[in-house]
Specification:
Chain B: It is found in: Cell membrane. The complex is a heterodimer of chains A (about 230) and B (about 290). Chain A is of the alpha/beta class. Chain A has a domain of about 160 residues: P-loop containing nucleotide triphosphate hydrolases (Rossmann fold, 3-Layer(aba) Sandwich). Chain A contains ten helices and ten strands. In chain A, the strands form two sheets. Chain A has a six-stranded mixed β-sheet with strand order 6-7-8-3-9-10, sandwiched between helices. A four-stranded antiparallel β-sheet of chain A has the order 2-1-4-5, with helices on one face. In chain A, helix 3 runs parallel beside helix 6. Chain A is globular. In chain B, about 75% of the residues lie in helices and about 0% in strands. Chain B has a single domain, classed as ABC transporter involved in vitamin B12 uptake, BtuC. Chain B is built from eleven helices and two strands. By secondary structure, chain B is mainly α. Chain B is globular. Classes of the chains: A alpha/beta (about 230), B mainly alpha (about 290). Chains A and B meet through helix 2 and helix 3 of A and helix 6 and helix 7 of B.
Chain lengths: ~230, ~290
C-alpha cells in the first residue's frame, strides 16, 4: 500500500532522514520505534506532505505522491494523528471532529459523528466545550477520532501514548487494535517500544535518520539489540 | 436638553461614525494576521482603492450602486492578486519579510493610483442626501447611519461565517494550529488567499462609506490604514471582537479629544493610543496573553 524508497529530508542544512526504505502492506499494523531525534516524526510528516522531501520517493498504491499537497493525501486516505495531539483548542469538540471530515461532505459525516460519540461517550458529553479544556487523555481520543472522521485507509499515529496515565495508554492501544481488526492499515510511531511491537505485525527500528532493523514485531521483541536499546532489558 | 449634553452627544455620534470605519479596517488587519501572522500594511490601500475606484466609475457616468459594486470587486481582485503574486511566492520567508512586502505593495498601489486616477481630492455623493437628521438635539448625517448600518451588517455576517460555516471554522483552525489544519486536509494557501480577498472587501467597503464625509484621495489610505492598525492593536491583534471595540474606542477617543482638548491633536490620538497600549498592555484589550502553554 505504502512504499518509501531512499527518502531523505532536511531541516535547513541538517539532514533528518538519510535514505529511508520502508513498506506497509494493506491491513498491516506496522510499528516504528527509535530514540528521540531519530527522525520518526519527520518521516511521518514527510508521508503526510507537511515536511519537504529532499530526495527519494513515496508511493501510495503505486502512485507517486512525493510532491502531492497534504490535502490531496488526506483525500487519498492518508491521515495522521500528530504528536502532542494538536487539537484546535479554542474550537468546540464537535467542530474539531467536523473539521476532521473537512475533505468529505454530506450526510454520512453526521452518522460518523454519532459513531465516534458512541465509542467515546465523554466526547459527546463535552461536545460543546472548547477542545483545549479536555484532559490529556480526552484530547488524545479526540485527535484520534478527528483523524478517523476522514475515513483513513492508512492511519499514521505519532506517539499516541505520550504523557498519558498507564490506564489511558492501555485504552489507546486497545483502540489501535480495534482499528486494525476493522481493516484500517496502521503505521504506529511509539517510544513505548514494548507495547507497540507487542501488537504490531511488523516493526522498523530507526536510528539517526535511517532504518537499522526490520522484522516481525515478535522477532524484534526478542532481538538482543532492540532489547538493550529500547526495552531496557 | 442642556447644551453641554447636546455637545457631548454630537461628539459621540461623530466618534462612533469614524470608529465604525476604523473597526472595518481593523477587522481586515485581524483576518490576515490570523491566517498568516502578517500585518498587511497595504490594508489602507484597499480603503483608498474602494473610494477612488468608485469615484472613477462614477465619473464615467456609471450609477452609484453599480460603481460601488465595481469598486469592491476590483479591490478584491487587487487583494487576491497581492496574495498570489507577492505573498505566496515568498511563503517560506519569515514574517518580517512578508510585512515588508506588504509595505512595498502599498507604495506600489498608491503610485499606480496617482498615475492612473490622478492626485486630486474627490468627494463622493452621500448615499441618501445631505439633509441632517436631528436626534436628541444633536444632528447626525444620513451617511453616518449608512456607515453604522453597513458595519453592523458586516459584523453580523462575519460572525455567522466564522461560527456557523465549516469554511469559517477551517480559517479559525488554521490560525490556531497550521500543522493540524494541514493534516486534516485544509488547504492553507487557499485560506490565506481567502483572507486577503475578505480583507480587501472590508477595506473597500470602509473606503466607500467614508468617502462622502471625508472625500477621497490617492493617499487617504495611509492615515486610515494606520488608524485601523492602532484600533487593531488596541483591541488585541487578531481578535475580531477586539478589532470592533478597538475601532469604536479609537473613534471616540479621537472625537472627544478633538472636542474637549484640541482638534489640532485629533490625528495624534491614534499614535498616543498605539504607544500607550504597547507600553502598558502589549496584548491589547482582548488579545491572547504573551505566554502560551505548551
Amino acid at each position: 500500500m505504502l512504499e518509501i524508497q531512499g527518502l531523505t529530508s532536511h531541516y535547513g542544512r541538517i539532514q533528518a532522514l538519510e535514505g529511508v526504505d520502508l513498506t506497509i502492506a494493506e491491513g498491516e499494523l506496522v510499528a516504528l520505534v527509535g530514540a528521540n531525534g531519530a527522525g520518526k516524526t519527520t518521516l511521518l510528516r514527510c508521508i503526510s506532505g507537511v515536511q519537504p522531501v529532499t530526495g527519494g520517493r513515496i508511493l501510495f498504491e503505486g502512485r507517486d505522491i512525493t510532491r502531492a499537497a497534504p490535502q490531496s493525501r488526506v483525500a487519498l486516505g492518508i491521515c495522521q494523528v500528530p504528536e502532542g495531539r494538536q487539537v484546535f483548542g479554542p474550537l468546540s469538540v464537535e467542530d474539531n471532529l467536523k473539521l476532521g471530515a473537512f475533505r468529505r461532505r454530506g450526510k454520512r459525516v453526521a452518522d460518523d459523528l454519532e459513531r465516534m460519540y458512541t465509542r467515546f461517550p465523554v466526547l459527546k458529553e463535552k461536545r460543546k466545550q472548547p477542545a483545549g479544556t479536555l484532559s490529556g487523555g480526552q484530547q488524545q481520543m479526540l485527535a484520534i477520532c478527528r483523524a478517523l472522521m476522514a475515513h483513513p485507509r492508512l492511519l499514521l499515529l505519532d506517539e499516541p501514548s505520550m504523557g498519558l496515565a498507564p490506564l489511558l495508554v492501555g485504552e489507546i492501544f486497545n483502540t489501535v487494535e480495534l482499528l486494525k481488526e476493522q481493516g484500517t492499515t496502521l503505521f504506529l510511531v511509539e517510544q513505548n517500544a514494548y507495547a507497540a511491537l507487542g501488537i504490531a505485525d511488523r516493526g522498523y527500528v530507526l536510528e539517526t535518520g535511517g532504518v537499522v532493523l526490520s522484522d516481525t514485531g515478535a522477532a524484534l521483541l526478542e532481538n538482543a539489540r532492540v532489547k538493550e536499546a529500547y526495552l531496557g532489558l | 436638553m442642556p447644551a453641554p449634553l447636546v455637545e457631548f452627544l454630537q461628539f459621540l455620534f461623530s466618534g462612533i461614525t469614524s470608529g465604525a470605519i476604523y473597526a472595518l479596517v481593523a477587522l481586515g488587519f485581524a483576518l490576515i494576521y490570523n491566517a498568516s501572522h502578517v500585518i498587511n500594511f497595504a490594508q489602507g490601500e484597499f480603503v483608498m482603492l474602494g473610494g477612488m475606484v468608485t469615484w472613477a466609475l462614477l465619473s464615467q457616468g456609471i450609477d452609484l450602486p453599480l460603481a460601488i459594486a465595481g469598486a469592491v470587486a476590483l479591490t478584491m481582485v487587487v487583494g487576491l492578486a497581492l496574495e498570489k503574486l507577492a505573498i505566496e511566492p515568498a511563503r517560506n520567508a519569515d514574517v518580517v519579510t512578508l510585512i515588508i512586502i506588504t509595505i512595498g505593495a502599498g507604495i506600489f498601489l498608491r503610485g499606480l493610483t496617482s498615475v492612473t486616477l490622478g492626485k486630486d481630492l474627490h468627494a463622493l455623493p452621500s448615499f441618501s442626501g445631505d439633509e441632517p437628521l436631528s436626534l436628541l438635539g444633536a444632528t447626525i448625517m444620513p451617511q453616518s447611519l449608512w456607515i453604522l448600518g453597513v458595519t453592523a451588517g458586516i459584523v453580523v455576517l462575519l460572525h455567522g461565517f466564522f461560527n456557523y460555516t465549516l469554511l469559517g471554522k477551517a480559517i479559525l483552525a488554521t490560525s490556531h494550529n497550521r500543522l493540524a489544519a494541514r493534516l486534516v486536509g485544509i488547504n492553507v494557501s487557499f485560506v490565506l488567499l481567502l483572507s486577503f480577498g475578505l480583507s480587501a472587501l472590508l477595506g473597500a467597503v470602509a473606503g466607500i462609506l467614508i468617502a462622502p464625509i471625508t472625500a477621497t484621495h490617492f493617499e487617504v489610505g495611509i492615515m486610515l490604514g494606520l488608524k485601523g492598525f492602532a484600533a487593531a492593536i488596541l483591541g488585541g491583534l487578531g481578535n475580531g471582537v477586539g478589532a470592533i471595540v478597538g475601532g469604536l474606542l479609537l473613534g471616540l477617543i479621537e472625537s472627544l479629544g478633538a472636542g474637549y482638548i484640541s482638534s489640532d491633536y485629533k490625528d495624534a490620538m491614534a499614535f498616543v493610543v498605539i504607544l500607550g497600549v504597547l507600553f502598558f498592555m502589549p496584548s491589547g484589550l482582548f488579545g491572547r496573553r504573551g505566554t502560551e502553554r505548551v
